[in-house]
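Blinded run. Sample ID left blank on purpose so nobody reads anything into the name before looking at the predicted structure. Input follows.
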Amino acid sequence: MSMKTGSIFFTIYVVVVTAACILLVEFVSRQINLANGIDIPFLRVQAAATNDAEKASNPHETKSVVDPHLGFARGKTEPRVRELLGQYTWIEGFAVYSKKAPADLDRPVILTLGGSTTDAARGEHSWPEELSKLLAEKGISATVVNGGISGYSTNQELLKLVRDGLEFKPDIIISYSGVNDRGEYSELPYPMVHPYQRYLLEYLTRSQYSPLFPNTVYLINKVLGGKPPRHIDATLGVPISRTLGQQYEKNLVLMNAIAQVSGATFYGIIQPNAYVGPSGESKTPTGLRKPKPAEYVSQLQHLYRQIADLPSRHPFVHSFLPIFEGDGLYQKDGIHATLKGDHLIAEKVLDLILPELSASQTSGSDVPEPATER
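Blinded prediction complete.
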C-alpha cells in the first residue's frame, strides 16, 4: 500500500471515528436531557413547517400580506391587485369597485365576503365585479365592496366583518361560502384559527435550540450556567364541541345579528359546486379536467349534508346549489366558476337583493345617506 493510499484511509478513519464520537455524545446528551424532562430533537431542530403550513395553500406564493387575526390577506404588490387599481380602489384587503373616496361611495354599499370563489384578485374575474358591472348597466346606484380572500372560511369572514367590514358602513352584507368550511381551513376543534396562523404561532413560539447538536449544546450551556433557550407557550382558545356544520351555522347567525344591529341586511349564500346536487345530494361529476381529490370531495359532501336544511330554518340563508345545472359554468376543478358562471352568480345575487335595492332607491328623495353611527 502506497503512502498516499495510507494517508487517504487514515483520513477517512479519523473522519468516521470523529463523526461517531460526536453522534455518541449527542445521543448521550439527549438521553440525559430526556431524563430531566427536556425533549430536544436529535442532531437538528425540527423544521417549523408542519402539515398546517401545507394547508395554508403556499401563502407566500399567492398572498403578500401577513394578517395577525386572519392569517394572511392580499396586498397592492400582487399583479392582479395592481391591475384592479387601474380601474378600481384597493383598501387593505378589499376591492372597492369605485374610484370614489370611502366616505363618498354611492349608496347602498354592498359588502361581499367569501373565499377564492369570491376573491377579486384570484383570477381575471369574480362574481362581485360582475355584480358591480350589472348594477352599472341597469343604472342602479350602488357600490360593491369585495372582501373575499382565497382560503377564508366563514370563520375569517366573521372576524373580517367585525374588524374591517363595518368601517364601510354597508347596507347589504353577503357571505358567499360553504366550500372552505369543510375542515381544511376550519379544522376542529379550533375552526377560528386559520392553518397559516397555526404555522406562524408554531414558528414564533419554537424553542431556540442550536441548529447543530442541540442536545449537546444545551447540556454544555446548562452546566456552564448559561441562559436557557427561550420558550413561549401559545393558545388556540377554548376547543369547541360543535360540528363543522354547526360552526358554519353559528357564523352565519352571528353575521346576520351584526348586520341587523348595524342597520344592514344580511344574505348568507351556500355556494354551488360540481360535487353536490341541487338538493344537497352527493354527485360524481364527469368531464372535469382536474377534479378534486377524494378526501376533499368527501369532506365537502359531508359538510353540505349538515347544512342542507339551513335555508328552511333561517330566512337569511339561501342555497345557490340549483343555479349551476349546465355546462361551461365551472372551471376544471368543479369549484371555481368560469366567467359565464360568475356572471350567472351575479345575476342571481342581484335578483336576491333587488327588493332591498329598490326600497333603498325609492325611499327618501334620492339615495339614503349613511348613518352617523352604524
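Unblinding after everyone has recorded impressions. The longest strand covers residues 109-114.
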